[in-house]
Amino acid sequence: MMAEPAPEHDSGIDLRRRPLGEIEPARSRHMWTRSAVGVAESGDLVVTGEWDGTVTARDSDSLETRWTVDHPDHAVGITSLETDETIVVAGRGDTGAIVAYDTETGEQRWRYDTADDVGEAVKDTVFYLPYVVALETGTDADGNERLYAAARRYERDGETRQWHSTVYAFDTDGEVCWTYETDASPIALDLDADGERLAVGYNRCMGDHDTGLVVLEAESGELAWTWDPGTDGDRRVGDVSFDGEAIAVSSHGDKRGYLLGPGGAERWHVDLAVETEIEGETLYAYPNHAYANDGRVAFVTGNTYAAESRETESRHPNEHRVAAFDADGELLWDDAVRGFVHGLATDGDRLVAPCAQNFRVRDPDTHAVRWFDLESGPNGCERIDGIATAAAVADDTVAAIEEPVAYHDEGETRGAYALRIGSLE
């Protein structure tokens, strides 16, 4: 069991707010990814992606709009090709579009519809839509900048559930260099620092593809090696992160964190939110995020679940926590994030956690943007009225998306749909 969290204090950095229009309030349980935000490496440009498809680039200091475009789908992921001065937006929708926009003007440079590969939705509901779940950029061994993406689509026919997915490598002109297709559900990508290997984490494996981690040759897309937690069921991996030749993996199969060496050799593993008996119930929580850098690894866990029932009034002692370990797997520090973290933003040794609702507690004090130093631990917290559902950080600039929330047993809506931005200097 991890230590009790230290008392929190607002940081006082004053996350400025810019309204983003209207969106349906979230409820007690966290919703799917509906928003995205990105910050250029220089920190001078922030880009937001909204559920209605609006993508807007703003000056980070003045928040003046540089350009606005309509993305073909719900805009749910943002990255940038720095040397090509391009903003890339991932979509969830009919086409599962990946679109590259000029950083200065917003002009569309190229577009790729992943539905051409993963197929079209067979049911008119959000969970069936083609979905670009991850984007990753980097420079290959020859010095060429590359974009990597993972797209998936889900369908169900009676008791038969099926995933269709494709991992892509693009050059800066949008040409496909290679693809890697499976019948499993990818959830995370990470490229090693040398641009030679791409790690792909698969969350659900219920078909012929039966391994949670795939490492590909970045130049060719050829398979280098695989690893799996070796657990029963279709839950496998939650996140992956390179550090040199090592890869940190958060396991949804056994709720542990792993550090692997080349070829998948296990260096160590730690219990994060493994099955635990509490008041006659078997409880667990999924380790959803992993981040490794300079010999240290952090993992973030999510909501409590009960093994034998859909509902429980109890909480796993390690739910909604961040824990950091050294190169030998020894605990450096741990702290509470208090609410569900949709996605972890990182920059060097800095981690930023956009914290949404804790649906079992329903305490608005959990709504916050929290940041941590990978070596020393908690660095600051800025509470917000709504829930924080996306974040980005670069060059001391932090940006987050606030969404409104209306708990099912209260009569009010907290917060609003807005961009929040500030400096961590």
UniProtKB/TrEMBL annotation:
Residues 52-227 form the Pyrrolo-quinoline quinone repeat domain. SUPFAM superfamilies: Quinoprotein alcohol dehydrogenase-like, YWTD domain. It holds the Pfam family PQQ_2. Transmembrane segments: none annotated. This is Pyrrolo-quinoline quinone repeat-containing protein. It comes from Natrinema limicola JCM 13563.
